[in-house]
């Protein structure tokens, strides 16, 4: 059993086994007795903790600029996206009989879906068909947008596989891109960023420094704060606006579904990261309470699911990349990080990289770094920033 456990999670697994043993009378069985637990603990592999990798400046800069390109593209097409979304909702409501019926999972049968290549006119049933979704996408001027970001290479939106679910995929990607952009400029934990709401961006005006942009939301782990704030770049407004657009549209749909448990605050000020509630999503999520947060995909999972977001060539590690990465993180795993391999992006890397860069800049005090990271002690923040002097001495990193 010990050989099947990952060293990083073995201790937690052992603790759960102890809990099961203590509850053996209630459960009615014993999985591992006291002697077996002792033997397992003795056989567990040693766990050597590694510091979270520091993203090399070239790769960090590329992914950040690419995220910004996506968000600018979204906002340029925002009105068209909203209009198309509303048109599709109304089309589903008409063919189902009402919006409430359209949002009932499995209620609208396949032959009454409005965006199918049907030859039927709907004369007897009153249903309306708008042909393949590509026709609607072109009508609203978003066909190029969807092809650019969510369609696999070589596939056209006119292909039969390109259904209305492309719109939901694009919206979900938009929410994640916005969250990634905010993480780049706030060093929040991903769990904290995933709980930000539409009104999270606050701009305070200081008589000495002028406007100061802040992200407001809950904090986790090391400190508890009733009203935590993260200082951020004014540029995150584009991310909040894009994710807020998607969240508002999806909250509107959830509000129209009688089967979806919700409270007024979740509709007035929804979370920026929301699951799909559109009728064409066709999943159990249509009746999922807004208070139940969706599972958070990893950064690398996003890049694999949407390969057009980043160019693999730009994420391929070079000699210069690995040199600076190892200067900052000497314990870098060579099996995952090497020349010619794709850099495996992770949410926590954005936090570590931001901490290192702040300390390397020479412009941010240790106290400010601790406040930004929401650490209970200064030592924790200094640990995050280990290796920053190596970045400061590297001219290429300093320029980026």
State the gist of this model:
With 400 residues, the protein is mostly helical.
Explain the overall architecture.
Strands 1-2-3 form a three-stranded antiparallel sheet. With 400 residues, it is mainly α. The two termini are 47 Å apart. Helix 1 packs antiparallel against helix 3, helix 4 packs across helix 9 and helix 5 runs parallel beside helix 11. Strand 1 and strand 2 form a beta hairpin. The radius of gyration is 25 Å and the shape is globular. Helices cover 48% and strands 4% of the residues. It is built from 20 helices and three strands.
What keywords describe this structure?
single chain; 400 residues; mainly alpha; three-stranded antiparallel sheet; 3 strands; 4% strand; globular
Q: Which strand-content bin applies to the residues?
A: under 5%
User: How would you sum up the global shape?
Assistant: globular
Number of helices: 20
The major sheet is characterized as: 3 strands, antiparallel
Structural class: mainly alpha
Q: Spans with pLDDT under 50 lasting ≥5 residues?
A: none
Order of helices and strands: HHHHHHHHHHEEEHHHHHHHHHH
Q: Tally of extended strands?
A: 3
Q: What's the helical proportion of residues? A: 40-55%
Distance between the termini: 47 Å
Identify the strand order in the major beta sheet.
1-2-3
Q: What value does the Rg take, in angstroms?
A: 25 Å
Q: Specify the oligomeric state.
A: single chain
Mean pLDDT equals: 86
